[in-house]
Amino acid sequence: MPLAPLTSDKLYRIAALNGLNDACKSTKHLTPLDEIVGQERAQHAVEFAMSIKEKGYNIYAIGRNGLGKRTMVMRYLNRHEPNGNSHTLYDWCYVSNFGDTRCPKVLKLPAGEGCSFKKDIENLMKRLVKAFPLAFDNELYYSRAEKLKAELATKQETTLKSLTKSAEERGVSVSITTQGDYQLVAMNGKEPHSEDSFAALSAEDQQLFENTINDLEVELRGIVRKLTEWEEQYSNKQQKLDENIAQEVVGHCIKDLQLKYKKVADVKAYLADMYTDILENIDIFLEENEEQVALAYASLDKKMPRRYQVNVLVHQLDERKFPIEVEESPSYHSIFGYIENATYKGTVFTDFSLIRAGSLHRANGGVLMMDAVKVLERPYVWDGLKRALRAQKLNLSSLEREVTLSGTISLEPEAIPLNVKIILFGDYQTYQLLQHYDPEFKELFRVTADFEDDMPRNDTSEEQYARFIASIVHDNDMLHCDRKAIARIIEYSSRQADDQNKLSLHSADIANLLRETNYVARASNATMIRSSHVEQAMLNQELRVSRLKDHVMQSFVTGTTLLDVHTHAVGQVNALSVISTSDYQFGAPSRITATIAYGSGEVFDIERSAELGGNIHSKGVMILSAYLASVFGKTAKIPLTTHLTFEQSYGGVDGDSASMAEVCAIISAFSGLPLRQDIAITGSMNQFGEAQPIGGVNQKIEGFFDVCGIKGRTAGQGVIIPESNVHNLMLRKDIVEAVSKGEFQIWAISHVSQAIEIFTGNAVGIEAEQGFYPSDTVFGLVQSKLNALRR
C-alpha cells in the first residue's frame, strides 16, 4: 500500500489559547507576568546561590543572547530580598591616617550616615575656623598673655639692672650692640676709655680692668643662660595657655559629635585621633595658608583643611534596599576603584580625598552583574576579581604601579571587607574554557544557572506566554494585542523553536517583533495590534534580511541553477539544503547526481576529493556505503564504482541530511529506473536505512515550494521528510493551503526504502530467505544486474 502524504493539520499547529478565559479579548485583560517564563531551573539556581552566605557561591549564568538572563535575575532580585534582615548594609568612608598619611583609614558607618557624618565634620571645621581666631583675639587672652610676658620682662630687667649696677660700681659699662650682643666697656669717668686713654693707664690699672671685665663676662654668661631658661619657660606657659584655650574650643565644638557617634566604634576612635591632631596643628586654623586653599581647589573640594575632610566612598541611599550593580564596561578602574591625581604648581599629588569608588564598592553587601566575555577581555580584571573574592577584601591598589613595576609614590588605603555576590553572564563556550583552563573558577563560581532555549507548549504555557506578551506591551507602552495577534505571536515563537510542541524562550526576538508590530499598527492608525499587523511586521523583518535569498531564487528564474521539477531522470534527485547568514536562513534545492562504472564497489565522493565536503558529509557517505553493502554485497562485492556529487556546488557542502537523497540517486543508477524530479527529499539515515531527523525542515520545504512556483507548479510536486521531523513542521500559510487543496504533498517516511518507492513508483521488495529479492521489485532489478556483472 503506497504511503499517504501528510494532511494539512500536521503541518502547522494553531494556537487555540484554550488556557485563556473566553472573556479575555486582548492583552489589556491579562495580568502582566512579573518573571521570565520557562526559566524555573535557572531561577532555582539563583535562589539557591543567593540564600547561601558562604564564600564561593557566585553564579555563572549560561545561555545565548536574547534569553532574558539579566532581566530574569533583575526581576527576581527586585521582587525578593535575597538576604532578608540577615545582613546589614554600611556606608564606607576614607579619612586621613594622622599617624601615616600614605595609609588612609576606612570608616564603617551605618547605612545612610556617611554623608551626614561628612556634613557634620564640615560644619565642625567651619566652627573651628571661626572659633579659633575669636578665642585668641580677645581681652582675656591678651591679658593672660601680657601677664606672662610682663613676668618674663620683669625678671629679665631686674637681673640685667643688677648686673649693670655692679659693673658701674667697678668702672665698667654694659651695653647692647645693634646685633643684639652684650658688650662690656671700661669707663673713664662717665665716658668710655679710648685707646689712648686706656694705654695711658698703669699696667696695674689695665690689669684690674681686664680682670673685672672677665669676671663680669662669666657672670653675664650665667645670666644669659637664665634668660634663655626663662624664655623657654615663658614659651611653654604660652603654649600651655594656647592649648588650654584650644582644648576648650575643640572640646566645646566636638562634644556633640562624640555624643552623636558614641555607638559607632570607628567614628568614635577617629574623632579622638582628630581631637589630638587639631591640638597639634592649631596653626592651620590661625594662619591663612594659601597652599592649603590651593590644594583644596585643585581637588574641587570645599575650602577647608584637607587633612580633616571625609571622603564618602559608598553611600547607601536606603538601608533596606539591596544594592544591585550592573557593570557594562568592566575595566580594572571601573570595578576596583582608583586614586585620582591633582596638580599644584606643576607638581602631581594625591591624598585620601581623591580615592574614587568602583562598582565592587557600590555593590558591597549586594550583587554585581557583568558580562563574562567583557571581563575576560580587559587586562588584569579577571585576576583582580578572583583575588578580591578569595580574600573577601577590597584592596585599592594602583594598576599603573603593578604594571610598570615602578617606585612611584602612591597611597595604600586600608582594605574594605567584601561581601558581594558576583553574577557573570556568558555562553557555554566561555564557561567550558574557564572550567578547563582556570582551576579557581570552580571554587569561586560554584552555582551554574543554565537558561533554557525553549519550553513545552501546552494550554498552561500558552497562557503564561500570553501574559509574557502582555508584560512587554505594558513595559513599553505599546498598543494592546487582540486575541488573534496573541495567537499569531505564540505560533511565531513555536516556529522560532522549530517545534510544534515547544515555545522559544528568546524573549529578545519576541520583544523586537512586538515593537515592530506596534510601529506597523500605529502607522496604520489602528487602536489595537491585530494579526495582520503581526504578519506585516514579520514580512518587513524578512524583507530586510532576505537579499541573499532573492539572489539565489533569481538564479532559478534565469536558469543559471539547473533544476528539473517536472520530468523523470536516472541517477538524479533533488535534495534540500539550508543556507544561513548571521541573522537569516532559508532553504534552496540542489541537484545530486550519481554515475556508475565497473569497479570494486566504492562510492567515490567527489565533494570530499575536491576538499569541498565537510567531515559530517563524508561520514554520511560512509554510512550509505555501509547500507548499500549490507543490502547488495553480503555474499560478493558490488562490481560497480559510484561517483557522487552535488551539481553546481562551489562553496562547500557539509551535513548528512542529503544521505537519503544520495542513496535514492545511487539505487536509480544501479537499477536504471528513473526518479521523479517533481519531488525533493531531505533526511539522514543510519546503516540500517532508518530515517533520522534533520534541522531546518521548514526552510527546506518552503525553499522547494518557492522554486516549484518559479519553474511551474503541478499537482504532483512535493517533499519527502523523515517521520521524526513531523513535530518540527510550522510551515507558511500558503504551503498549508496548497497541501489542503492537494496541490502539494509532504511525505513522512521512517525508512529510505519508502522514499525509493515514492520516487520510482515501484515496490522496493522484501528479502527472501536466501538473500534474494523478487525480480519485479527495485532491489530485485538491482540485484539481477549486479549478479550479471559478477558473472
UniProtKB/TrEMBL annotation:
<dbReference type="GO" id="GO:0030163">
    <property type="term" value="P:protein catabolic process"/>
</dbReference>
<dbReference type="InterPro" id="IPR008269">
    <property type="entry name" value="Lon_proteolytic"/>
</dbReference>
<keyword id="KW-0378">Hydrolase</keyword>
<feature type="active site">
    <location>
        <position position="700"/>
    </location>
</feature>
<feature type="active site">
    <location>
        <position position="657"/>
    </location>
</feature>
<feature type="domain" description="Lon proteolytic">
    <location>
        <begin position="567"/>
        <end position="762"/>
    </location>
</feature>
<keyword id="KW-0645">Protease</keyword>
<feature type="coiled-coil region">
    <location>
        <begin position="213"/>
        <end position="247"/>
    </location>
</feature>
<dbReference type="GO" id="GO:0004252">
    <property type="term" value="F:serine-type endopeptidase activity"/>
</dbReference>
<dbReference type="InterPro" id="IPR046843">
    <property type="entry name" value="LonB_AAA-LID"/>
</dbReference>
<dbReference type="InterPro" id="IPR046844">
    <property type="entry name" value="Lon-like_helical"/>
</dbReference>
<dbReference type="InterPro" id="IPR041699">
    <property type="entry name" value="AAA_32"/>
</dbReference>
<dbReference type="InterPro" id="IPR027417">
    <property type="entry name" value="P-loop_NTPase"/>
</dbReference>
<dbReference type="GO" id="GO:0006508">
    <property type="term" value="P:proteolysis"/>
</dbReference>
<protein>
    <recommendedName>
        <fullName>endopeptidase La</fullName>
        <ecNumber>3.4.21.53</ecNumber>
    </recommendedName>
</protein>
<dbReference type="Pfam" id="PF13654">
    <property type="entry name" value="AAA_32"/>
</dbReference>
<dbReference type="InterPro" id="IPR027065">
    <property type="entry name" value="Lon_Prtase"/>
</dbReference>
<comment type="similarity">
    <text>Belongs to the peptidase S16 family.</text>
</comment>
<dbReference type="Pfam" id="PF20436">
    <property type="entry name" value="LonB_AAA-LID"/>
</dbReference>
<dbReference type="Pfam" id="PF20437">
    <property type="entry name" value="LonC_helical"/>
</dbReference>
<dbReference type="Pfam" id="PF05362">
    <property type="entry name" value="Lon_C"/>
</dbReference>
<dbReference type="InterPro" id="IPR014721">
    <property type="entry name" value="Ribsml_uS5_D2-typ_fold_subgr"/>
</dbReference>
<dbReference type="GO" id="GO:0004176">
    <property type="term" value="F:ATP-dependent peptidase activity"/>
</dbReference>
<keyword id="KW-0175">Coiled coil</keyword>
<dbReference type="InterPro" id="IPR020568">
    <property type="entry name" value="Ribosomal_Su5_D2-typ_SF"/>
</dbReference>
<keyword id="KW-0720">Serine protease</keyword>
<dbReference type="GO" id="GO:0005524">
    <property type="term" value="F:ATP binding"/>
</dbReference>
